[in-house]
Amino acid sequence: MIGKPLLPSSLFGRALLILVLPTVLIQLVMAYVFFDRHWDNVMRRMSNTLAGEMAFFVRQLKTIPVEEDFQLALNFQTTTGIDVLFDKPESFQPERTTDEFPEFQQRLHAKITEPFTVRKNATGTIIEIAIKLDDKVVRLQTTNKRLESRTTVIFLVWMLGASAIFLMIAIVFLRNQIRPIRRLAEAADSLGRGVDLPDFKPSGASEVRKAARAFIVMRERIKRQLRTRTEMLAGISHDLRTPLTRMKLELAMLGDSEAVRELGDDVQQMERMIAEYLDFARGEGREEAVRVSLNELLEDVVSDYQRLNADVVLLTKNDVMVDIRVSGFRRMLHNLVDNAMRYGRRCELSLRVAANYCEVVIDDEGPGIPVEKHEEVFKPFNRLDPSRNSKTGGVGLGLTIARDIALAHGGTISLESSPKNGLRVIIRLPL
After folding, report:
1. 198 to each of 8, 274, 326, 422, how far by Cα in Å?
2. pTM: predicted TM-score of the whole model, two decimal places
3. Structural domains of the chain sorted by starting position, each given as residue range(s) with its CATH number in brackets
4. Tens digit of pLDDT for each residue in 208-239?
5. Please, which residues bridge with residue 414 across strands?
6. CA torsion, points 50, 52, 55, 59, in degrees to nearest 10?
7. Residue 78: enclosing H or E segment and its boundaries?
């Protein structure tokens, strides 16, 4: 079984592997059958035929007079195409034989008893068999085609060539089938980052078209749900301002007492809550995502605070382009920097860029948040006392809204302990 780490990660790679593996296995089986059966049989028959012809010639030489040797050699050469030369007995050199053609040498050994040698010429195209008789040495020369079949090379070339053509056709076909799936994945990723692709249309195979149509319906439902929630939240928040205004007027006419002051604090807290609701509603409104330089946006945010003489600095600068809703993202940064400056004297921002994501890091020098409460502070209306209460902080929606904005951009937001002994906020965005 192939382990997961060995499998390609993409659907294209896996589909191509499904096509390639059976093709390779079939070729291996065919090659084995060809070499083990057909090729061996052909070589065996070729060796047996050549050995039989030479053995017949040697036996004929031993039965005829010496003066008829040349006529027999001429007839044999004309009939078989094997050149025949006669040499002196002392020219025989048994050590010059080769280890090639074992099948032929075995067959020749079985047919004649005389010693012989087999060797190739310098170019490898001619095979010479020297057979030592009593009074002479017979040198028989023939081409290597008599013992080496070219069928093997032709078979391999045709097999590999056909496989390469089929593989190219499969790659083109698979690319056309995978492209709609990639477009669907890009559309889903863009939706997660808040970037709409209005020109996205279902295409490809019927299953992919069905998934694409389901995605379009889901996208419209999500948009409608977000729009309905935003409008309802904005309407409720706006309507609440009227009774709050009346309550403030009535409190101003009641005079100064402990109960009036406590009730006034509650009204102020409700006003801050409604203000954050409205900020949240505006951030989730109809603002479209645009491609901007994140470094320039951070510089603008830092300059806003520096004009107010706040100790806010941008440490690292990396030029990276991202698709964001500028107003909502700026509001999130202001929210986080305000939170950092509320509990610390200094705030440092930095921008880190990796291969497929970037991170905005915000460090403060405040008291920080215990590690076990890092997730708890993202819950709505959650406040940490005594360092982050309603008198010194907000109403517990700041980090909730910040996380919602980050998620709307397809990113994440997390908390860590800062090297400055305060809190570190990390906003990660996909590229």
Report:
1. 32, 34, 20, 44
2. 0.51
3. 8-149 (3.30.450.300), 185-286 (1.10.287.130), 287-430 (3.30.565.10)
4. 888 888 988 888 888 787 777 777 766 776 67
5. 426
6. -140
7. helix 69-80
